[in-house]
Please model this.
Amino acid sequence: MLEREQEPGSPWRVEPLGMRGLFGASVQALHRRGLLEPLHEVPDTDQPLRPRGVGHFAGMMLDPADVDVDALPFRLPSPVPEMVMTSLAAVEAVLAERVVKLGVEIRRGVTARAVAQDDETVVVGDGEREYAARWVVGCDGGRSAVRKLAGFDFVGTEPQFTGYQMLATFADPEQLAVGFTLTATGMYLRMPGERRIGVMDFDGGAFDRSQPPTREHLQAVLRRVSGTDVTVTDVQHASSFTDRAMQTTTYRSGRVLLAGDAAHIMSPLGGQGLNTGIGDAVNLGWKLATTVHGTAPAGLLDTYTRERHPVGAAALDWTRAQVAVMRPDPHSQASQRMLRDLLGTRDGTTYVFQKVSGAAIRHDLGSDHPLVGRTAPDFRFEDGTRLSDLMQNGRGAALDFTAVLGDSAARWENQLRYATGPATDDLGLGAVLVRPDGVVAWTGADRREFEQAALRWFGTPQG
Model:
């Protein structure tokens, strides 16, 4: 693994500047790999957890009490929360510990300066030496060198605002309200009990981001947006960002693949960037692994772009929609007032929560069953075994609630974890096939259909 940063734990990744929210699909993905517990002490309960801290839309906070839990698709009680607050540094540390245990060497201070590929190999050069591999995955951020050097097309929309994030001290912080505050000229966010302030100034992205913002500039922008005469006395850290929304037209070019911000950039509104990137990684990881080992069925790696590109496009549109109602013009302000009314309803809040949490994501896997293509709920067998227990080693799972599969699932015992027996709630299903990324690949009660689905996603039985 080649890492551009010399050392982990920059100020932008640790608390408070590096604080991020992990939502439902990401929380489940980390839990099913045994990676959530180091980030968060998971409540030991089998009771349905009501959403807590369920996010916002354009700074308009969602009330957890207004989320209709019963309306969420295929929901089952889970021992993990709907949302986990953590930091980028914590996520990086947990992932780094895992890859080191797997025998991966992390080489720091390496920046890609050349990428060349042929039918068999990709070579990445850093100006001093070359690294050859059969496949390369660029996860090097919004200004991805791999994306540029490999020639990916990057298209989208230009910014409406310049945003600023600062860690600062103020002579009169009481002038700034805590939380999100939408104003006639933009929005600002003050975190409770902290010196972290975020500001969004609708200047069309005019600020020169090649230079760090000065204290004077930050104070002028904050005063204009907040409508106060607040005084910034000192700035410890400050950076700027925009709502530029861009995405590569494909996530794969030959033997080079992209994931996370390298494949898509968007406004940080709603915290979709980190969660979308985790979804990319979980989707790609097992497909690339089986391809490397030569056991992947034909075309499996091509499903990465087919499944994740629409998810990335939807995330970009989600942030664009938020920007559209925040603009300081009469039309946008009218839309904002209407949305506030909608978010004051149970249906409106539930709709937005499904989008933010990832519960609305469904990949088109060619099945009419509404569960196929969604993240599997955490089925629990009557003996206490959960789906998440079966997926710790990165394999898929075949859940046989009514013993309809017989010996069929045993053929894939080297690729799947098989469990049979009654469940506390089987949602009326006979059997379920779950991919390593937690997505339901098939459900039914026909052995032949199960075998066809297993061949499609897991290839020929091994061993």
